[in-house]
User: Fold this.
Amino acid sequence: MNRLLFTLAALAALAAPAPAQDDAKKVKLRWFGQSMFQLETAGGKLVVFDPQMIPTFSPPRLNADVTLISHPHSDHNQLEALKEKGRVFEGVRAGKGTRTEWVTADEKVGAVRVRTVGTFHDATNGMQRGKNSVWVVETDGLTFAHLGDLGHELTEAQVKAIGKVDVLMVPVGGIYTLNGEQAKKIVEQIKPRLFVLPMHYGVPGYDDLLPATEFLEEQKNLKKLPDTNELEIPVEMKADEPAVVLLGWKGPTRPEPIPDPKKQPEKKP
Assistant:
């Protein structure tokens, strides 16, 4: 009898349908303009990179279990952009006088590991714009690297410290950071496995930076997704070569508030 039950159970297991692809574990990465991203792990934990409040982008107020700030400039460190901040990590902190100091971090917050690699905001060892930190996040078997306002090519030691990367977020808008051609060299240095997401570039209504055009030229595996700011990444994903993904920076449309007639502005005579 036991042998019969075992045989029936084995046959039932073989006949069971394979899990649907939609049921596969995924992480989600959302872009909210400039260098602001929200990473949602397969378990629902939220990591926010470089929160900003630039009016052109008008990012919604997000929740975070972990907040990562690459450097203390006002378009990267606006904690007021968040409803819930969670654990806040700074990659660069103010030191004595006008000096800044790298903050070395390598910690786990639940199933999320975050660590820093010290870099510079310019090509003159920080003499022009100071220090910058690369954030490396490991979760669900994937590694994400957010380069902040990187302004130079990486040294061999920095590439080694960053390590293997699946998804790379890289500035491409020049002026204050890497330009398009320089960003391509950084991609060649890091060699991300799955995706490259350009960030920190000019868009209509925000021309402080150059557009992403130079970086996108001659990209062989380019995917433009202007209608969404979200990229879904299966945790078991494989790829022959990384894709460059240009996300739309606008999140879901938020309804305009209904004006209160009691609070209408006074008419000038």
In short: The longest helix spans residues 2-15. The mean pLDDT is 87. Helices lie at 2-15, 156-162, 180-190, 213-216. The two ends are 96 Å apart (CA to CA).
